[in-house]
Design the sequence.
DNA sequence: TCGTGAAATGTAAGCAGTTACATTCGGCTT
DNA sequence: AAGCCGAATGTAACTGCTTACATTTCACGA
């Protein structure tokens, strides 16, 4: 039923090659010929068949973004932000974007091998086996928000150490000496960077760090509030909490309210991610802004360069920025 | 470089037809033949080329989700939730999912015509021209979170009237007579439903509605807070606000705090969407839960049925549910 | 008018599978 | 041993486009 290039060729009286060129390289076709082709095409409601084109060219202009997380994938504001960046950049470059979860990775690896998908961006907690599989199939991959030892691939991460430092500095400037660190559960790489960043920053500020002041909790407000209750109810409590997640910070603020501690008066709090909730809380939350969109865009750029065979940097670090609000 | 079915055919000593069958209909191939083919295939690291298969079969098992919004697309928790649902269901059905924005729709329509994309789910504020274009190209589409007059296509919406009614009832049960409605800016269809739902619910509850108590504002906490300040600072103020968005509700709570009104003591507030922020606010926000995930899943189901040529209901309404927390 | 070279167009061989139809195989009955 | 039949396999046409290479067209100068 569908019109093909042959139908257009017949109706317009030119060869299929010319029809093809009219659509994919019009400058090679003489003006009047071109017009005849267009007329025939619109009479037949012809549209080039993208699948056939992919087949002939052996390329699809299609990339994939795999979010490797157990729970909320795209619902996680962070990964959604990266996705938004990827999407915008992909659109700009005329790339189709397939979004999926890690469950799907074997399937995706197969698709990648047959170049139905040209390259893959992996976000989150990636298993080494997954990376190996893609590499075994000669698929170009870019890691976002993660780094992996022993693999030679481009990574895009935000500058976790800088972010932590900015938060710590902000608290120190406000006169706090006793600063606690509360981290939500993230991938080992992220947690490691953040912890290291904290130690570094505190040393630079000549402030003490005690193990009791470093807490890990789940990434829910309830869990964070619970941990914070313990941390803050002692007689000798920290005067500031550097929460490495806005949700955790919200939990800390809840605990503070329950304990009758005013924020920022009696307790200062900083968050991390600068997510939508920061301006909804009372007081509004000072938080470390991560340019997630740029992370996504950068990942696409790297992927493209890699696909073109160009050299790409192994590591791209996106700077963070502190957004000051009322919680310090 | 890449191994093809011919290479496997040669190495295993069977015809290409048998190789093809071994991969797409193994039960038609005798056990020992099958094994020989598998061996040859793994020796050559052969994987079927999905593009060629798509071409031969004229089908791709690929669908698209187009988010038609100006600003934050996938960053909007609501559309992200729908996306999550679509993604899960698509994975389960072995469909590839392309995610894009409305900017891309002409391109997508062309892809759809050549069946590179088999069907499309449109979310958000869809222009009639867009729908016409897809229909003109014989593409099956499903609308999610929207309905359009004059077009014959399946729609998935949440039961806005029910949601508003649940919120209004909850407030009425708590003894409130003077209930104000605050709506964020959404598509005409949604706003219409919500307003109608409010009028209905208030009538059923035999409560008065005055124009002064119905407010439209932007979907930001700041804008909502500003509107709420006006609404609540008069001497004869409403005792409850039915906010049709959690962000708006957060704005209302901010205004209440500024005015020294305690929530829920002096002012009750309900939100809408039951988003992640509900449990972060103080007090936690009573909100109408929309099963966005199910909306997404349903959209995929409808799309599939439609693609199979089966009849699909024009309208699927997903029920809402009130989640009671501390703000009433 | 003819020759020349660049530009425009045509011919046909891919791209990598699927599958209708034809053929062969192998076990069973007579 | 011949005949038969269904299962297994093979042959080759087909999907719709691109493009290397061959051929034609055309403008321009000699």
Sequence:
């Amino acid at each position: 039923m569908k019109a093909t290039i042959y139908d257009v060729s017949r109706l317009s009286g030119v060869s299929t090659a010319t029809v093809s060129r009219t659509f994919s390289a019009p400058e090679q076709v003489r003006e009047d010929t071109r017009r005849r082709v267009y007329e025939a095409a619109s009479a037949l409601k012809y549209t080039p068949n993208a699948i056939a084109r992919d087949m002939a060219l052996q390329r699809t202009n299609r990339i994939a973004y795999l979010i490797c997380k157990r729970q909320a994938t795209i619902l996680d504001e962070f990964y959604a932000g990266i996705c938004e960046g990827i999407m915008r950049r992909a659109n700009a470059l005329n790339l189709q974007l397939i979004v999926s979860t890690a469950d799907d990775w074997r399937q995706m690896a197969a698709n990648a091998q047959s170049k139905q998908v040209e390259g893959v961006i992996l976000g989150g907690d990636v298993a080494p086996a997954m990376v190996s599989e893609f590499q075994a199939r000669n698929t170009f991959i870019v890691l976002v928000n993660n780094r992996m030892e022993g693999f030679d691939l481009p990574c895009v991460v935000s500058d976790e150490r800088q972010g932590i430092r900015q938060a710590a500095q902000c608290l120190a400037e406000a006169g706090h000496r006793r600063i606690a660190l509360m981290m939500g559960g993230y991938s080992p790489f992220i947690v490691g960077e953040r912890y290291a960043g904290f130690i570094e920053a505190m040393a630079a500020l000549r402030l003490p760090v005690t193990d009791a002041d470093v807490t890990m909790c789940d990434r829910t407000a309830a869990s964070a509030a619970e941990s914070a209750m313990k941390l803050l109810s002692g007689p000798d409590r920290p005067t500031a909490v550097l929460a490495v997640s806005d949700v955790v910070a919200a939990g800390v603020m809840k605990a503070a309210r329950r304990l009758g501690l005013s924020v920022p008066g009696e307790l200062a709090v900083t968050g991390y991610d600068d997510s939508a909730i920061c301006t909804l809380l009372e007081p509004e939350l000072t938080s470390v802004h991560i340019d997630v969109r740029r992370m996504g865009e950068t990942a696409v750029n790297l992927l493209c360069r890699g696909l073109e065979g160009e050299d790409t940097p192994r590591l791209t670090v996106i700077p963070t920025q502190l957004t000051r609000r009322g919680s310090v």
Q: What stands out?
A: The radius of gyration of chain B is 26 Å. The domain at 62-158+292-317 of chain B is CATH 3.40.50.2300 (Rossmann fold).
